[in-house]
Amino acid sequence: MMATPLLLSIAVYLLALGSAALLLKIPAIADNLGQLEGRATTIDGLRGYLALGVFIHHAAIAWHFHQSGQIGMPPERLFAQIGQVGVALFFMITGFLFWDRLIKQKRQHDWGVFAISRIFRLYPLYLPLLAALLATVFYLSDWNLRESPAQLLKHVSLWLIFDRPDLNLVQGTGNLISNVTWTLSYEVYFYLALPLLGMVFLYRGSLLKTVACLVGLYLLAQVVGWEHSLKKKYLLSFAGGIAAAYWVRSPALMAWGRSRLAAIIAVLLLIVVLTLLRKTFAVFPLLLLSVVFFVVVSGNDLFGALRLPSARWLGEVSYSTYLLHGFLLWWLAYHYYPQMGFAMDQPLPFIALIALCTPLLVVVSSATFLLFEKPGIAKGKALAARLRRKREALQANPVEKA
């Protein structure tokens, strides 16, 4: 199938953008774009392309699984890199957004509100997915309980902190969602490490406090990655986002980043990483991707690609796309496709399946965003506002606090 990975990837992007454009003709969906004013448009647009890149990566893995019976990195360089580049740039976005906020707020940063916002960002969609995953596990188990209730409860609890043990003795349970939750462990580590990083690099405490924070960062990595140790090569991606938070504070760099020349360089560097390099998570490719990211955070829309309303909508639903695409692929490409009677070495039926899966993924992601993500975010904001009001009331009435 994969003799023309570039053309196939472009086809997926066009199908997804077209599907999003059609959805935006629905007023209830289009109104959501109007609520994004004040946000970094180019970053929103970038998110959509990144999530689709991970989907393309896993679709290629599914194809090769049918040829070899093994799940592994696709041999085609573009298909191998497009997913890894997506994850690296997602980590950079996280690093940029929260380090930028920490630079602005410094010691006034409200960590309670921050914790609430992250919980209500990650879990409102993750919990329904986990429920659907558990139902699928029992479907594969013929609705029989194959491990003790205590063991099942333990394993489900580990899934709640984004580990992926097998559930109910179904081997390779994580493959049902393409194991995408591994990245959430790195996101959570960054969230938890942020106050320690702030104390080291922004608050500038004593040498003893700095050493204590560095030890704390190490121990925190061991706790978060207790089952599968966190790897430095992935954590390095966040550094590109942190560097971007300083880039945007230079008017000269920002002006260059918005130029046509910067857009050309960014596109060329992206092509180099996607097609010529064999690794993404290494110092040199991450440096190249950091330059790409600097250009994007400068407000450069890369010849309009990041400013398309359809791209921005795909960015808005990118968490749903990222979290759900593996589950959708499992049902369609791993479970049902072999039952359809096609020869497993014939590429056209599989390409047709992915062509069907792409708009379906956009529709499902849009629906889950509106049903789960958006209400969850709103609930988190309301809870954070209540926490602020309570804290302000206590500060205004210290006698009541006592």
UniProtKB/TrEMBL annotation:
One annotated Gene Ontology cellular component of this protein: membrane
Coiled coil regions, renumbered to chain: none
Entry superkingdom: Bacteria
Pfam families reported for this sequence: Acyl_transf_3
Keyword line: Acyltransferase, Transferase
GO terms (BP aspect): polysaccharide biosynthetic process
GO molecular function: acyltransferase activity, transferring groups other than amino-acyl groups
Protein name: Acyltransferase
